[in-house]
């Protein structure tokens, strides 16, 4: 189809064309960015967390008596380990995706300019094995290192060793020599890095999707009232049963405490509630936007076909086939949508710049643009098809009959 | 060139059946200039739309250039309209969104002609009608006579064998009508077959042959006593 005369005709109807072009541009910009963000959210749902998630249940225990807590912990752990199917149990101050026990600014020395925030995990003896931490370098804590490390009034353990995640190691010692270095917390305390583990997620959900999502430090800690999380390990198929048995057991042992058990899968699921609903909201926004655009195109095309009924008849009378008429309107739509897409690309880029500046979003990868363009072309062609078919059925006799 | 035998055309609406043409016969030879006259509502436009394949007919036979058109599909009919027939309408029927050049180009584009040849033909046709200087004008910027000349150029550009004109001067004043008529006579002299519907007895008289339609039937003028009265009535009304 020859586009020059179609352009000439569109030029004569600048105002409605400009409006629909703007609508398409807006839809294109919103769509490209929304798809990008949806893609990111979906990727976040699969965020890595190098612990044995499917094997774990977590019982949080609150309101323990500080005076007896230190003695209660070994008793409770022994009871939990006695449950059939349980292959390990340990205490922690917090757990990945669960409630946070604190974030520290960590660095390689008191003068360092780099001090990212990292989540603090304090583990009781046996914790690394129960969690299934994957050691990449170094070693786990020895029994003496647990016994040596207490809170004794402060917030920070007074031990001397830590294990850190790979991401954090990479951030602090980009050259890769984390092992044996001193990890500074604030400007006074420092600990020797004795191990580097595969990336474990931080507590909560606020760091999801960020570069710092896996910045975590593991401290050994002797039994302490700060331990509120009992992590119990079993085969995945025994999880539910172990969960109920563990809750019941702790309940009989400590009737005054608030006990709440969850499988780790549930905890993870809750952490991503916001991420999931955000993705769905964006999917909805896209659908609404595209539907509105499609209806806009249908409306305008129908109006134009009605308005140009006589012109169509004339074209038919002087030799246009039905296919010619159909193609005319589809081509016209293609041109309008293309103008909208061209403008939409610029707009997408602008929206992305804005989001990058205000919402820590990465740059929109270029390949989202053709995805947006194809989607709008397709929607445009489909939306124009009805009116175009209608136009192709205008009989040639209209040229002589209607005035 | 154009031969209709026992042709009928019925318009059916929910309430009535109108015989716009009834047992209609006509034979237009190649190279003839025929004027079709008749009172309003007698079926002249109906005849022309069927002759030009804009509409189908209800009964009878129509041979166009030796081809029985009743068996043709929509695409074949479009192709014949495009290549063999030129239309000139009372209401000019230019496309308002396109300028003069683009208007004349429309049928040539449907023919799939190369740009260079299109341009040549458009310029020749516009030269013929004396509007070569108005290429960039839009229909709304032209007088009625000029618009009709553009329409004639559009019909001419495709070098049709058959030119069908439905009251081509009906919307024009006498002077402009005369100009258009002279143009048609020129075109006829160059070999085109022309069938023109007109209410104007003066123009009809300039054709080689007159066909008179009354109530959907062709009547022989000599044998038709009502002719004088009809003719007088229609030319005043
Ligand atoms: N689409 C249609 N539906 C129903 N009846 C129609 C239709 N078109 C034409 N007619 C009828 O057919 C008859 C012939 O109409 P036609 O337009 O051919 O007359 P005409 O001779 O061209 O008249 P005029 O001189 O006024 O242009 C008229 O009675 C008209 O009402
Ligand atoms: Mg008529």
TrEMBL record, chain A:
Residue ranges constituting the MacB-like periplasmic core domain according to the UniProt record: 36-230
Compartment annotation: Cell membrane
Membrane topology: Multi-pass membrane protein
Residue intervals passing through the bilayer: 17-39, 278-305, 334-355, 367-385
Keyword annotations: Cell membrane, Membrane, Transmembrane, Transmembrane helix
GO molecular function term, any single one: transmembrane transporter activity
Top-level taxon: Bacteria
GO cellular component, one term: plasma membrane
Entry keyword annotation includes rRNA-binding: no
Location of the ABC3 transporter permease C-terminal domain: 285-396
Family listed: Belongs to the ABC-4 integral membrane protein family.
Protein name: FtsX-like permease family protein
Organism from which the protein derives: Oleiagrimonas citrea
From TrEMBL, chain B:
Family affiliation: Belongs to the ABC transporter superfamily. Macrolide exporter (TC 3.A.1.122) family.
One cellular component term from this protein's GO annotations in UniProt: plasma membrane
Name of this protein: ABC transporter ATP-binding protein
Single annotated GO MF: transmembrane transporter activity
Keyword Transport on entry: yes
Keyword Transport assigned: yes
Domain ABC transporter, residue spans: 2-237
InterPro entries cross-referenced by the UniProt entry: AAA+_ATPase, ABC_transporter-like_ATP-bd, ABC_transporter-like_CS, ABC_transpr_LolD-like, MacB-like_ATP-bd, P-loop_NTPase
Transmembrane segments: none
